[in-house]
User: Fold this.
Amino acid sequence: MKQILPQIQNSIGSINYQWAFGLIHYFALQGVTQAVISPGSRSTPLALACEKHSDIETWIQIDERSAGFFALGLAQRKQQPVILICTSGSAVTNWFPAVVEANHSYTPLLLLSADRPAELQNCGANQTIDQSFIFGSHVREFITVEHADETLLKSNYLKRITTQAFSKTLNQKPGPVHLNIPFREPLLPRRFTADQLNHFINRLSQQVTESSTPIIQSQISKASISETRRDLLVETLDSGNGLIICGRLTHYEHQGFHKLLIALAEKLKCPVLIDPLSNLRLLSSSNSHFIYNYDHFLKNHHGDNKLTPEWIIRFGQFPTSKKLLQYLEQLDSHTILVSSYGDCLDPIHKANTILNTTPDRLCQQLLEASIKPNSKQWLKSWQNSEQNSETKIHKALDVCHDLFEGHIIHKLLGIIPDNSLLFSGNSMAIRDFDTFITRASAHDKNLSLYCNRGTSGIDGNLSTFFGLLANQPQTTKNYGVAVLGDLSFYHDMNGLLIAKQLNTLGYNASIIIINNNGGGIFNYLPQNQLDDFDKLWKTEINLNFKHSAQLYGLDYHRIEHHDDLESQLSKAISGSGIQIIEVIIDQKTSVECHTIL
Amino acid sequence: MKQILPQIQNSIGSINYQWAFGLIHYFALQGVTQAVISPGSRSTPLALACEKHSDIETWIQIDERSAGFFALGLAQRKQQPVILICTSGSAVTNWFPAVVEANHSYTPLLLLSADRPAELQNCGANQTIDQSFIFGSHVREFITVEHADETLLKSNYLKRITTQAFSKTLNQKPGPVHLNIPFREPLLPRRFTADQLNHFINRLSQQVTESSTPIIQSQISKASISETRRDLLVETLDSGNGLIICGRLTHYEHQGFHKLLIALAEKLKCPVLIDPLSNLRLLSSSNSHFIYNYDHFLKNHHGDNKLTPEWIIRFGQFPTSKKLLQYLEQLDSHTILVSSYGDCLDPIHKANTILNTTPDRLCQQLLEASIKPNSKQWLKSWQNSEQNSETKIHKALDVCHDLFEGHIIHKLLGIIPDNSLLFSGNSMAIRDFDTFITRASAHDKNLSLYCNRGTSGIDGNLSTFFGLLANQPQTTKNYGVAVLGDLSFYHDMNGLLIAKQLNTLGYNASIIIINNNGGGIFNYLPQNQLDDFDKLWKTEINLNFKHSAQLYGLDYHRIEHHDDLESQLSKAISGSGIQIIEVIIDQKTSVECHTIL
Assistant:
């Protein structure tokens, strides 16, 4: 630290600053470029250090829960750690929903919570709670940062802990890391005039950022499997017809994988079931190996031999489709999980082998090996089912005259600009994307579809979308669309405060609320037979979201009829700024149309 | 369980129900009467068991964060455990802000989280996270409930764990207890028609509730101090002039304490500094021993001997006033903490003695003892300062022509009906209550003032208020008023979904938003000198809360001028249903008026 931090003054106030500026600067040297700050007093040194650092972009969100999800979106879009800052006390606990989602979606977050010093712990001091290990098993590491201290400033302590935290947040298994950072008062150097104070802060910031060289962090390691394991794998693949299933991938896993997977599928003559969150469906609709409509045709699969594989290779997260889950549950195929981060994502307990390698590395290794392809008939059977379902789904879209979810997704995929960001809510929305991103509606627009599928919560959806949007590469005609239900919209309405900022900054996006007035998904569960269904599950909230749009000064559109859908959707998407589009869906119609499928 | 649970069917679906109904029924037998439910699928048996139980009143709130705080309010008003129910996954983590507040405000909550069964843990199953010990040190106990099981149903297992949980949530040190409850599918008995299913649920509910006798739970024990300790204490009190300070008390501590404290103060001729959250200020303005305005006159105290006590007895939480804290910090008096729940609430490290007894018990013991009273001059000095400040504060209220917080509190206390509930936000609101509940403005209306002062967060304020309101005793002209800043209002706007329900149910209340457009409190901190003050601390949100009121169909009033304050406030408070009153405050004016004091 000696080289980079000047000895301006030795009061607690100034050491707090050297401490916070050092900490943030080391994170910047590792490659952190963004911080999301929720205002507070105890976190003053940290907030200022981010704001003043020339390599760090700061965002403000008052509600820490929404802030957490906004940071999650930012981090997911680039697979790059994002800093979160909040003050001490209950503020920290508001991050928890985003932290568990980050844990399960492998999203790197650096949670920097300010805290009161040791002498104020456990004695009834204001805004003071036990923040140690507060996120339990849901962070990769918890680091108790020492109190700001001159001796430690002169050591390489800050460099060591930031390197450790950054490494834990990104390497091996990306995820959140929590640093709890106590500060003693005064939080600002005392006895300075305003001018002196601002001068001190600016000088410190300048001196810190001008100094020292970046720290090169290794990225996630791309381990190959051993030759022995590869030979055993080839033996399995040679044993009969098989299937590749590709679930949700992280941004990091997705890079470079697409072409290798196509090459492998062609080499093996292998059907590849592609989950909507694999982000392969919206790229490759001309590829005859990719199977889109399995959620539709597998519901009628009752041990059909024509669709029974000898082996299965699974990439990414367990797929969204419940029909696929039920199909897989009754199989006895040799199942190989490709696990980039070492987890066994296998809720049906079918894995025979877990390979700790990345999807692209495994494809490369298998492309180099000599493997017997599947029979032509095998691939053909899948393609026939696929085509059959494709026809039926599109017929259902035509037959249903009243507005339902299928129409929205179908039309949206036609209208949405190329290279757009697409975000899906959980509950019904992602299931409808699964069903209605057919081959014909896919359009190959290179869309990126995201969804909080780590824990599949209805919380934080809007904020996650805005985070993804804010980090969307700024190419021409770039656009973002979120599609989510009324309960998910309601749950994170506070996230719209950032929408207001994004609006001012010139971002363009649409939020489509599929308003079926409550928990429409429960209509598909046995609970719908109960006398208490309406109160306990359907939970109509009867809100007109026009008022939410007005609260934040956002444009609002309301669509109630099928005939208006395409024109209204086009109009909204061609508008500038953030558009709120509320589409009114009748639950009964929706259930009927889904049943026709 | 044998006696109360019928052997209807032995499938998993029906055992889940016998399990959930048994669990909830045992809680009802202990005395639980309320449950707050956030909809979900995995929690189906628990939600139904509450809904069907004749002794349990259920409330629905979709956002689990707001649900947590609503339950907190319900529980605080009666110091009685309230059940919370949510589904598995990130839903649970949304309770965390309310859980830490419950921990630090000694509020009994029974957190019943549904979970997926063991076979779906740690393998990438949907909506499945590690829920074990998820609230860490912030609950009194974490109980892993076993999977619903026939053998256990026949044992007294459910009786034992519910008794244990109830006891931990209320006895010794009230607070939250977390029970994590896994359920296997099917969540409802299969192969039943809708009629059969509803019949089964109704029959089970009836059979469960008709059976067995209540379990008598001991309440918090009222331990006395030993005679030796009492004699030592009397010796200290005899040694010179002393002071009693009374901070925030729990509902339980408050009962019966008021009269005993007055008797003790009179016996000892002792000034009693009463925090606004002691709930003594709004009861006893004619009592000459009670001191209201210490926050005002202690700011000028620089070691003044006339106000330097030999001893201090402190009841309840550490007081709100920062001026009082600074005064106490520089004293060297013998300090006695009265700790009902065993905690040492002493952030300034001044306690010489901690007495593990309740405020009322200690008063009784001291009233029975022979103790030398303080000097007349001692009490007089405090009374003089009190009178002096009283004059100055009211002069300031007159001198400030432009609308500021002091006017709102002063007028409100005049208008608000007797026996009303009063809720204060944190940040500026509670400090303004501290300053402006003077002797003259107190009016002795038997108001109950509440504030989330456990962790002093800006989160969950509206929901806490609605919970308190829903459990307000239904006497004539009963009323509730919340006063909070715009950031606190914004943080928990989702809580207004319950307001909509309360509106329908005929509750009357007003929410006064003191809108100074952002973090007004930071104007009083040194951060206001920084160039980045507006972005990082002031954080103007520029929201017109008229739209929030419209979203939930609530009446809205906007007050911008001092001249309109009294008439508009009267008009709103005489309206029926939930009224949103937005009072626009200029930050500069506000700082000036506070400075005149």
